Every structure is written in structure tokens, then in C-alpha cells.
Amino acid sequence: MRHIDYSPLFRSTVGFDRLFSMLDTLAQPESNGQTYPPYNIERTGENAYRITMAVAGFAEEDLTIEARSNVLTVAGAKAEESTEEKREFLHRGIASRAFERRFQLADYVEVKAAELKNGLLHIDLEREIPEAMKPRKIDIKNGKDAKQIEAKSVN
């Protein structure tokens, strides 16, 4: 795999360090080639998203979901089978190995709900931009209505 060196771009930009770090991370294959469990990411509305993960064989108590500083971590660990119920498998095609999957969330994206249904874990996300960050319309007034502010010393 070809590695792209972004260092010349780092020198010519200010404030885009996080963007280039994310690009560099996306360009690299996942560190351990992890493809389990498979997942989908879909847009369900203008500011709504859903991550769906195939976690067949896992119960609610086997899964943990944690959102911390723009990183969503989904982990699953199956409880060890008791020795009393030791089963002999002729073929074992349903994976139940432990996993941890991390998703980088954009700013102002929050986890709203999670649901486990028919072996699929649905995680609903919503982007909530604060009022101070939303674009707003500024009225333009003519010069006749403008009020002049007098300059006064602070002391």
C-alpha cells in the first residue's frame, strides 16, 4: 500500500492539524485488518445518522457503547461458556469473538439512542449545532437610522 506524506501541507496551514490527522488515519488500513463485525452507516435525515452493526449472538449485556471526546466506541465480549454446558461443534460459523470498533464523530454529533433487534445493533446519532454556531441573518439599515456610539475612556 502506498503511503502519502502530508508533511509539506502541514507547514503551509494553520489550524488544520486535526483534519490532516483524520485524512492520514483514513488513508491507512485498519491497524489489525479488522472487518468484524460488519457495519453500515446511513443518513436518516438532514442532521441524523444511524450506525447498524451485525452482532448476531451477542445479548445486550455483552455489548458496551461509550461516547467520549468525539469517539464512539462499541465493544462486545461474550461471557465464557460454563464447563457444564460444553458443546462440541461440528462447524462453527457464527462468530462470537470479542471486538472493539471505534468511530470518529464530527463536532456536535451526539448519540441519541441504541437498540438491539434481530441481531443488529442500531445506534442513532444526531448533529446538534449550538445556536451561537448557526448562521444568522444580519439586517442592513440605512445611514439615517444608525445611532452613533460615543467613545468613552474605561478609567
UniProtKB/TrEMBL annotation:
Keywords: Stress response. CDD domains: ACD_IbpA-B_like. Residues 30-143 form the SHSP domain. Belongs to the small heat shock protein (HSP20) family. This is Hsp20 family protein. It comes from Oricola cellulosilytica.
